[in-house]
Structure formats: structure tokens, C-alpha cells
Amino acid sequence: MQQQGTVKPLPKYENCWLTRTDPADVARVESKTFICSEHERDVVPVARAGQKSALGNYISPADYDKAVIDRFPGCMRGRTMYVIPFSMGPVGSPLSKIGVEVTDSPYVVYSMRVMTRMGNKVLEALRKDENFVRCLHSVGRTNNPTTGWPCDPPRTIILHRPVDNEIISYGSGYGGNSLLGKKCFALRLGSVLARREGWLAEHMLIVGITDPKGRKRYIAAAFPSACGKTNLAMMTPSLPGYKVECVGDDIAWMKFDKNGVLRAINPENGFFGVAPGTSESTNPIAMASVFRNTVFTNVAETADGGVWWEGMGAAPEGIVDWKGKPWNPATGTPAAHPNSRFCTPAEQCPIIDDQWESSEGVPISAILFGGRRPEGVPLVVEARDWQHGVFMGATMRSEATAAAEHAGKVIMHDPFAMRPFFGYNFGEYLRHWLSMPQEGRNMPKIFHVNWFRKNEQGKFLWPGFGENSRVLDWVLRRCDEEPCHQETPLGRVPADGALHTDGLGEVDVKQLFSIPKDFWMNEADCIEKYFKDEVGDDLPNEMWDELKKLRKNIQQS
Ligand code: OXD
Ligand code: MN
Fold this sequence. Notes:
Blueprint: E1 7-9, E2 14-19, E3 33-36, E4 58-59, H1 61-71, E5 82-88, E6 97-103, H2 106-115, E7 117-118, H3 120-128, E8 133-138, E9 157-161, E10 166-170, H4 175-178, H5 181-197, E11 200-202, E12 204-210, E13 216-222, H6 229-233, E14 243-248, E15 252-256, E16 262-265, E17 270-274, H7 284-289, E18 292-297, E19 300-301, E20 307-308, E21 341-345, E22 362-370, E23 380-382, H8 386-394, E24 397-399, E25 411-413, H9 426-434, E26 445-449, H10 469-479, E27 485-488, E28 491-494, H11 509-512, H12 517-535, H13 541-556
Parallel strand pairs: 2-18, 3-4, 3-9, 6-8, 8-10, 13-22, 22-26
Antiparallel strand pairs: 1-2, 5-6, 5-7, 9-10, 11-15, 12-13, 12-14, 15-16, 16-22, 17-21, 18-21, 19-20, 23-26, 24-25, 27-28
Helix pairs in contact: 8-13, 12-13
The site of manganese (II) ion has 3 residues, from loops.
């Protein structure tokens, strides 16, 4: 790769490398990502039949075959083809699954080696279980051999055919478009497999939290891309006596065991984290993890052979930007691409949990949903019951991020943080979640959190990061059924004085938990419109019931 110009060494660190992609290949391409099935309704809710849906792009079997035939013959000519047997999850765990990715990108091979378990061990496991997900990837026939980053952006396409356990990706070499174990397998196909087999494949981090009494619990949390999942997964708690350990920062596969306990594994083997915003103050643990054995992509380079990105701290002189040009801060353009990444082995994380590779998975006590909501949404709300929690997941919204191709700071619906990752009809997905409570099962409590509320001056009301341990403390006390809550129209929030705020300094708790009536009437209208426009008759009635309850509660408040 070095000889081909794809990577260059970063001599400041131990075995670290820098890659610059083609500037047209920098993020997931949701508009070019499709799911194929016999019937459109398998993929897209009925309200969107024949139209573009925000909840999944459908492609017919004929168009799928045509897309492949139009692109693949001869597309790898002149390059080396690699075959990657890989396992999502610890090799041999009953919760793990195997895939084989064929690719013509050595960058993909390297990254898959970090992000998955790969190689002979997996081939051995495959001998015992012939089921595997077939993944085909090519960077495409490139007309631009001068860059070290071949790709074919105008013809990029990411295809999934769940009935055949098949993923085919053409034209992009970056991130979720090409490391097919991650979003394509672990989430899109994973969600289909999970529904078929009765488990959950979710866009969630997993953390272990030990409280001052020495009791350890695990929490899974779904936030949209670039909303701080990696920061929460590696949090340094500010509350004395608490310890946080990381199991995973992006994806959770969860299944109830025979004792009715929800068990989760992180199917990944590394962190493909967003670099900008990561610093000694926001995520010291990530900073302690990433400067060894890491490939950085699209970050800026420093004169002494190191890396820099926005939010890391003061910019040294002589920075070269992510496009390889000397950076002039006066121009206002970022030095690192907003979706620039580090790709680092998980085992390097100093707080990796000792159970992170446990084959039965870790027991989950609570599930958090959240997003970036600058207005109106309280710091934390506990769902009244599982169905209400499913409604919280279904109605999640968040400011758009740089992880995909959206522009601007619009508030987007992102149910379960899965909007770009559903492998099947969202209405059916909700039914699957609603079917989880069963005799003998110990249901985790569900919460909605929002670290991102701002005051009228545009300043964050909550300091976030390590201080989020105060919210986790309340969550765990609620898991113990401690009566430290009060009812509100939205669900349960901490009783007055129950959230530990001592030592926090000036924080306007009243405003953090306020529930503005006009805002919430409008929110209910937005949810109704979203449900009607995007889901229609496929929406389970339980969700309409919850919306009715929300409206009534707000009206009466
Ligand atoms: C990711 C994403 O890369 O969610 O994790 O986009
Ligand atoms: Mn993600």
C-alpha cells in the first residue's frame, strides 16, 4: 500500500499510518445503498411504496442483477483479489456469524483485519457451519490511476440481498461502504437474521459500569452516527467510586438467554471512530488507544509526522490538510475531514472490559436511546414500560451529522439510530421489538437521554462527557427500583434532588428537565406526520396508542 501510495507512515507514532481517500469518497452513501427482495414492502413501509423512502431504499431482483452485470465484469483487472474469511463476534460464539469478503482493496483487507476476527481460525469454524454471508467488494474500474485511491463515485452502489445472505458493493473504498462486516452485515443483514432468529442487531454501544458498592451492570445505548457513542463507551466518570469499561462503541447483537437475561456481544474487533472532536478532555481513553497500530483516514498531518484534527487542541504550525495541501486556517476550511476516522484494535483500549470477548455475551440491564436535540428534550426520561420504550426508539430525532452525505444541521428522524441501517420494513422491525417481552424474560429498562440541549444563548446546558456518569448513576438506581423518580407527561425523570449534581458547578437543572408545552405539541405533530408519511398502515397500533397518550399527557400538563 505504501508503494502504491495508499498509505504513508506516521513516524511520530508506533506502527501508525495515514490514508487520504479520493475527495469524492469520504462517507457512507445512503442514497446509493439498496436492499433487494421480491416485494418492495419487505423492505419499505407501505406508505412509501413506489417513492423514495428515508427508511430504506428498495431495489428489485432484476435491477439488482443488472446493477451487478453493468459494473463487475473486468472491474478488478490488474489488481490483486483478496479473500477474507471473517467472524462478526468472537470466533465460535453461538452469537457470532461468519462472512467471506472478496475484495480488490488492500486497505479493506487491512481494515477488516482490525475491525473483525479474520483468517484461518474462521475458516476452521466455517468447516463446522456452512452458513456464511457472501460479501463481494470492488473499488471499481477507475479512470483515475494517478491517485492512490481508486474508486468510481458516479457508479458507486451498495447492494444487499437478504434471501441469499449476500452483500455486493462497488465503487467506494471507504468505511461502511467497503468494510462490509460493519453496517452492511452486522446491521442491515444482521437485522434481517435477528428477526428471523428472534434476536436484536442494533446500532448500539455497550458499556460496563461498576458502582461504588462494587456492583457491575451493563448498558446498551443507541445514538445516531457521530453523537458521541465512542465517548460514552469510553467514558471517564466524574462521579467518585464509579468505573466504566468498554465492550463496544457501535454495534450490539443481543439475545435473551434461557434464563430470560438479555445478553449482548460486540460483533466488532476494533474501533472505526470519528476523529474530529476526540481530545484529552472529551475522550482521554480513545487518545490513549489510537496512537499505536492505527490507520488514520482523512485526518490532517503535522510537520513532525503526527496527526491533527479539529477539536484535538491548538493546531501546530505547518499542517497539511486531509487533501494533502498546506492548510491555511484563515480560509475557514477544516484541516481534517469531518468524517475522518481512526481504525484501531479494540484490545488496545485501556478500559476494554474483561468480558468483551465472552462468548455468551454480557447481561444488559438498561437500554438508552438518544440524539442531538438542542431544544425541548430533557436530559433523561425513563420509559413507563417496554412499549413506551419502543415508542421512544421509534420517535428518535437528531441533528444531521457528517457520517453520511447530508448537509446542514436539520433535525432528522432517526428511529433507533437505525434509519440508514434497517434491512427490512420498519413497521415489521417495530413489531419484532414489541414481541420481545415474553414469559420468564427479564426486560431491561428503557431510557431516552439528551446531552445536547442548549439555552437561549446557544450554550449547552449540560457539560456532558464524564459528567454523564451522573445520569448513568440515576439509570442504575432506577434499575434497582429505587423510588428516585417523578412522573411527567413524557415518562419518569429524576425526583427533585435525585440526580447527583454536587460538585457540578452552575447547571440549570430546571431548564434541563423542562417540558415546553408548545414544543411538545409540535413534536407530536411531527411524529404523526412522520408515521403517516413514512410508515402508514405498516405502523403497529401500539405506536398510535403511545402517540395518543403523549398528546393527552401534554395537553393536560
Ligand atoms: C459509523 C456510522 O461509521 O454510524 O459508525 O456511520
Ligand atoms: Mn455507527
